[in-house]
Amino acid sequence: MGNKQIKQHLETAQKTGILKISLQRLQDFPPQLKGYPNVLKTLDLSQNRFERIPEEIGRLTLLKHLNMSGNQIVELPQVLGELMKLEVMLMNDNMIAKIPDSLSNCTNLKTVNLSHNQIGEFPIMLCGLKHLDILDLSRNKITSIPNEIATLHVTELNLNQNQISNLSEGVAACPKLKTLRLEENCLQVTAFTPRILKDSKISILAVDGNLFNSKQFSDLEGYDIYMERYTAVKKKMF
Q1: What is the reported pTM?
Q2: Nearest Cα residue to 129 out of 150, 107, 144, 146
Q3: What is the DSSP letter of 82?
Q4: End-to-end distance of the chain based on CA atoms, in angstroms?
Q5: What angle do CA 44, 8, 34 make, to 5 degrees?
Q6: How far is the C-alpha of 56 from the C-alpha of 228, rounded, in Å?
Q7: Is residue 117 within 8 Å of residue 94, measured between CB atoms?
Q8: Can you tell which superkingdom this protein's organism belongs to (predicted)?
Q9: What is the pLDDT of residues 149-168, one digit of tens each?
């Protein structure tokens, strides 16, 4: 995309608050953004070739929707924590290995997609964010779910296709968690304790592709109570 086209996009964005420059093989932020007025509410730079997010993004304090999926980003900068109005952050399909602690400041986050990256540890800085509703961490390298998960406020958590072998019983205390996806991990059937099956609010628990079969799962203490929740949700859908 030439400078002329970018200039046109930027001029339009000043009126709409929406800047979308995707599928353009960009490796660097448009330099015009450095002195750009702080009007953007949506920034979509997906499907480019960014390896890093520049510090200048911290100036865009009105941003609500940030999409940088499908790039080559390795690390997220601490300045993302300055985007206090951010509601949607899409960073899937990158090479991100590290999540900044500063994201705990983004208290308006509702949806975070970090799927298909290189994340090795569960991002506990997202626990405690009371508006966070959907968190997708599928296709990463997470091995353990820590006790801090008890303060995660999402209704849906996707952890499919990781390397999880340890699941904290704290997941039973998640105040809103209804859907938990743990397919294709390294979990033993004993990870699903009676407390998780009986006392949690989880009504959809996807566990195929772990180190046990469906009969072993259905034989667990508390499975029948979990199935009551599952059936009640399915009835509401039809």
Answers
A1: 0.95
A2: 107
A3: G
A4: 48
A5: 60
A6: 51
A7: yes
A8: Eukaryota
A9: 999 999 999 999 999 999 99
